[in-house]
Amino acid sequence: MANNSRLFVKAPLWLARKSADQHRLAIDLQSWLDETGSLTKRLRGIYGQDFGVSVLFNRWRPAFIDECRLLGLPTARYQLVREVMLHAAGRPLVLARTILPERTIEIAHRNLSHLGNRPLGEVIFAYPDLERRQRQFSRAPASNWSPALAQGLELRQPVWGRRTVYAIHQQPLVVAEFFLPGLFWKG
């Protein structure tokens, strides 16, 4: 997995609907999992200028098999794989993985392939025809994360996330977001 991800050694298991465990989650985590708007906008509203994006991985690589199936793409074909950490003044808040097929990038006039530290949400939520097609949920155990990342972020417990398939001009992309303990730290 290291060849196509800096976040994971094993792809997370995704469920199409909420599990029984998820119905018992804390309200603050539940609100992030259920957010229908831009996470970028919500995080900027909370953290202002302290909000930032650090790019961890941004390469043309094959996506995970389940991501290809979700997008209806051949498994050996290269997609733009982008992994980032959203943070506030350096405090990790969210880890995100985006799969951008070449056709989606072309239809978006290449706005998606040169983001750098710019949040994806700023770009995709600006498209008037952005469509949310599907959402899935995951509770990724510590064993799914790359050892360096797990150690650096002290990921010892499972981390809840969501994965959303969006479409721009009918062309899909997938965005997975995992909500780190730092998001809920009050201090």
Give an overview in words.
The protein is of the alpha+beta class and 187 residues long. Helices cover 21% and strands 33% of the residues. It has six helices and six strands. Strands 1-2-3-6-5-4 form a six-stranded antiparallel β-sheet. β2 and β3 (91-100) form a beta hairpin. The mean pLDDT is 92.
Quick structural overview:
The chain is α+β, with helices and mostly antiparallel strands and 187 residues long. It is built from six helices and six strands, in the order ααβαββααβαββ. The N and C termini lie far apart (35 Å).
What is the H/E order?
Answer: HHEHEEHHEHEE
* Secondary-structure content class: alpha+beta
Beta fraction of the residues?
A: 25-35%
Based on CA atoms alone, the radius of gyration comes out at 16 Å
Low-confidence stretches: none
Would you count the extended β strands for me?
6
Q: How do the strands of the widest beta sheet line up side by side?
A: 1-2-3-6-5-4
Q: Give average pLDDT, whole number.
A: 92
Structure annotation, total helices: 6
Global shape: globular
**Helix content range of the residues, please?**
10-25%
Which short descriptors sum up this protein?
alpha+beta; single chain; 187 residues
What are the SSEs and their pairings?
Elements: H1 27-33, H2 39-47, E1 51-62, H3 65-71, E2 78-88, E3 91-100, H4 102-107, H5 120-124, E4 131-140, H6 147-152, E5 159-168, E6 171-179
Antiparallel strand pairs: 1-2, 2-3, 3-6, 4-5, 5-6
